[in-house]
């Protein structure tokens, strides 16, 4: 199964990410098939081809949840929203209420 995910590049405390297309069993930093996007997390800027990413998703690749959140924030496209898992965080709120 093909996965679209973030691969970290750059120095300490200067994260740069590549959005890569790879097999889900391969390591994150090596052996990817294609670089689809470059993303600078410090200033929240990216050079991306949104149509290329969408076409890969239509062909069967699945984006990671973190990548789906970043792409949805950048484009507000509903294609990426369905890969974001909505979690119910009731355990933390119950603990906070008990402390009060």
Shape: globular
Distance separating the two termini: 47 Å
CATH topology: S16 Ribosomal Protein, Chain: A
Helix content: 25-40%
Structural class by sheet pairing and helices: alpha+beta
Major sheet, described briefly?
5 strands, mixed
Secondary structure: number of strands: 5
Structural domain tally? 1
Strand order of the largest sheet: 4-3-2-1-5
Per DSSP, the total helix count is 4
CATH architecture: 2-Layer Sandwich
Element-level helix/strand string: EEEEHEHHH
CATH homology-level superfamily: Ribosomal protein S16
Radius of gyration over alpha carbons? 16 Å
Textual characterization of the structure:
- This protein has one domain (2-99): S16 Ribosomal Protein, Chain: A, CATH 3.30.1320.
- The chain has four helices and five strands; from the N terminus they run ββββαβααα.
- A hairpin with a 2-residue loop joins β1 (2-11) and β2.
- A five-stranded mixed sheet has the order 4-3-2-1-5.
- By secondary structure, it is of the alpha+beta class.
- The longest helix is centred in the last third of the chain and has 11 residues, at 65-75.
- The N and C termini lie far apart (47 Å).
- The protein has helices at 50-58, 65-75, 78-81, 90-99, and strands at 2-11, 14-23, 34-40, 45-48, 62-63.
